[in-house]
Amino acid sequence: MSQYDAIIHLLAGGLGGTAGAIATCPLEVVKTRLQSSVANFHFVSSGPGGSPAAVQSLAERLGLNACTCTPTPTGGSGGFSTSVINTNNARAPSIGIWRCLKQIVEMEGTKALFKGLGPNLVGVAPSRAIYFCTYSNSKSIFNELLPSDTPIVHICSAASAGFMSCTATNPIWFVKTRLQLDQRMYGSISALQCIRDIYQRHGLLGFYKGITASYFGISETIIHFVIYEFIKAQLRQRKESSRDSYNPDVKSTRDFVQFMAAGAVSKTCASTLAYPHEVARTRLRQEGDKYRSFFQTLFLVWREEGYQGLYRGLATQLVRQIPNTAIMMATYEAVVYMLSPAVYGASPANDD
């Protein structure tokens, strides 16, 4: 792969990841909270001098039946904010996606749907850029060492890309998770405050909590790209057999729709099979020392919440991942398709 190819794949991966992240951020917030063990801990702030009765009424409307209104000093203003806390020892049952979104908006405001978007945008572009560039370079190398374009090539390439991306960007995702789990309406912490707090309490290594779970999550990446490449190969074979003059360098709108479908199908399969690692990773990144290691977290969640606990937020994840991956993969393929002719002097053709 040439230097120009690497730049094209870096840019395409970054733009694809950014487009998907912006479009699906509210669902990302919901998913993270459902995965966390503190999702049954509903914080409502009514501001200085807020009425506990009003907050109690709001909580009951949202289905938080067992709660206590606890006035807590807000600091310099001399007023009080009101926290609504689920007092059941058992974890509250999961509620639907729409109800989760409604609860976040009513309790914390519309901006809360985009908590963590800053670190997400900071992280998603380099993460996807590193990922796709490493994947493309690794694929070129492994194609020379192993039978060309076979599943083992895709597995090794995806594993290499996942390892590089996880290692380089874990601190960013750690900060993003902490911000998304902050359920305060007033006095929400900023990304810089979060970074400062993590560093003061845990040092640099604190930013790498949950990275073991991320490494286990490479299995999801492998499954995703093996299925994606298989679907692409099947589509290519069908096109070759159905057309007398097939040109792989010519792509139509239909091709990009197929890329979106292939990305959505492959990611759905991968996410479902490897989902428990996401729950473990979120638990490891949240506040507290209850969860200490990957396998200890998986066992503890299974023991306390059953197998359902290992799949909390899966529906939201699938609803989010399908459009996110479809947008990301289609944008990636489109940018590569548009930039390659510009770099190498050819004009992109279209057979629509």
TrEMBL record:
This is Mitochondrial transport. Pfam families: Mito_carr (PF00153). It is found in: Mitochondrion inner membrane. GO terms for biological process: pyrimidine nucleotide import into mitochondrion. Its main location: mitochondrion. Belongs to the mitochondrial carrier (TC 2.A.29) family. GO terms for molecular function: pyrimidine nucleotide transmembrane transporter activity. GO terms for cellular component: mitochondrial inner membrane. Solcar repeats lie at residues 4-141, 149-234, 254-338. Keywords: Membrane, Mitochondrion, Mitochondrion inner membrane, Repeat, Transmembrane, Transmembrane helix, Transport. InterPro entries: MCP (IPR002067), MCP_dom_sf (IPR023395), MCP_transmembrane (IPR018108), SLC25A33/36-like (IPR049562). It is a multi-pass membrane protein.
